[in-house]
Amino acid sequence: MPTPDDIRSLVEPGRVHRSLYTDPDIFELELERVFGNAWIYVGHESQIERPGDFISTRIGKKPLLLARDLDGNITLVHNQCAHRGVMVIASDCGHTDEYRCCYHGWTYELDGRIKAAPLLHGYPPHFDPTNSASGMKRVPRVASYRGFVFGSLAADGPSLEDFLGYMTTSFDDMIDRAPDGALEVAGGTFKHRYRGNCKLYLQNLCDAAHPLFVHESSIVAAKQQTDDTYSDGSGEIAIRQMRQNGAPYSFWEANVGIWCYPNGHSFLGDYHDDSKLVAALNDPVFRDYMNVMEAKKGKEQTRKIVEVRRWNTNIYPNVSFMSQFQQLRVVHPVAVDETVVHTYNFRLRGAPEQMFRNAVAFANIVNGTGSLVLTDDLEVYNRIAFGLASAGPEWLEIGRGFTSDQPDQHGGRRGKNSTSEVYIRNMFDAWLSYMAPDPVRQSEARARPRVAGGSARP
Amino acid sequence: MSPTTIHAAAAAKPSAAQLDAGACEAFLVHEARLLDDGRFEEWLALFTTDAWYWVPAQPHQANPRDTVSLIYDDRRLLETRVRRLASPRIYSQEPRSRTTRIIANVTIEEQSDDARACVVRSKFQLLEYRRDTQTAFGGTAFHRLIATDAGIRIAWKRVDLVNCDAVLDGLVVPF
Fold first, then answer.
1. Which domains does chain A have, with CATH numbers?
2. What ipTM does this complex have?
3. CB A72, CB A51: distance < 8 Å
4. pLDDT digit string (tens) for A431-451?
5. For residue B55, what is the nearest residue in chain A, using CA coordinates?
6. pTM to 2 decimals?
């Protein structure tokens, strides 16, 4: 077991030790300390709209059930029967008035309390079926920010809003784009895998310096495509997006920014200037949408909403989303060198249906398992794992922009421009705060009064 | 038979005279051979100028507009996909995959009165080998075929993978 000092020695200014991506012991510690303490995105309220709706989800590697119980409360419980350990629910989602174990018929309320079980007699004193602690184990904290549901395996810690901090404005950006002020998960999911460490995924999503190289094959192929070939509209969106990936460094350095905030969060500025990809620009689909928005929210408010220009927002450690085309990606660590990513789309409630169809077409090219773009990203993650299997340099360099990063007026910091790796350094600052907490700050946290209902630890 | 003559035989175009079961099966075998041989531009040439190629992400998926798809290419994107496959910078194909496919259970599901257009259903098994890993795919394909003066053409192709909603590695070589 590495000591806090051992762990601190693995992160230096502008570089990190390779073992952070390769050491199974560090991976297990991350599950315990990062995924065990941070707020982890577990689902969206639109997936559990009616009382009785549930979905399977997880925190780290732990399978969970997220539900809206019969009283309308959001519940999050470990998917394990209190009796002999069977996974109670085997489906991805559903609607039920109780969870029922297939092994001996134990049933549970959706908040995990035992509802009924056959032959409940003769148990020793430690097991009391009427005690709610005896049922399916509850995740200590679950909270929602405007429909986005997070869970925390830690009984104590900052509130969800404190954890998100300024990043709530990125959620607002996505939600406020819905004319009815609400989003719904729709349009299916992609589930893809790569043979590399889970940290690589978020570290790539705000990486302004990679598209020109990683995506060269799709950029060039898209640039060479003639526009008079038949398209039903979906291929056109894909091709325009691939061309935008070919923006030169001069564009990224002159026109795009990167912003970082406490707890490892960050967002990349938008790098699009194509009228079919930016709502504020002139396009028939966006014009219809703007008309609906203006009718609901007024011209001035609509202008303020669509002029927000953010690309990917990363909420460390497990979720990234993008408001312009309403995409969200959830990172699931599997092993130190294996990661699964689930991606989702949202419908903007009240928007013209073509907006959603364009978001689906966009998802296919950006998140699709068979995408011309994503497949090269996955290859890079795999090759990082192969590269780190060598005996090459001990340290990985994350120092670009180190000497020119600047403070941000909302309590964060930003790169001089988007090509700074400041957002990776920012993630590792958060990583260190979870993995090797400062003992002084820890004791201060312990001295604070506990939130009512939080379980007391010795 | 030398390797050269084998290749020449593969390149021979199937007859477009009539879309009976035999002609359709011969065409699907020909298409599979082009894909296994990495002759993607010739494969693209089998499609009509307004064709689409679709690999749904869900079983029984109703359409490619309201739900994401593993692959959904209209003709324009299909051309881009094939052009990218020829790029020396396609890192997800470095090294290249090798594939081998078996097409079977070919049936004609729908046919026009003049037998010049039909929807063909077939089963396939595909092994893909790349960088020390062999991956098995299987499923059902639907082709809408049209007999033209230039030969049989694909108006659309739908490929339902038996594991379409599984966790998958990146998909690069077309089905």
1. 40-145 (2.102.10.10), 164-435 (3.90.380.10)
2. 0.93
3. yes
4. 999 999 876 655 555 454 444
5. A370
6. 0.93
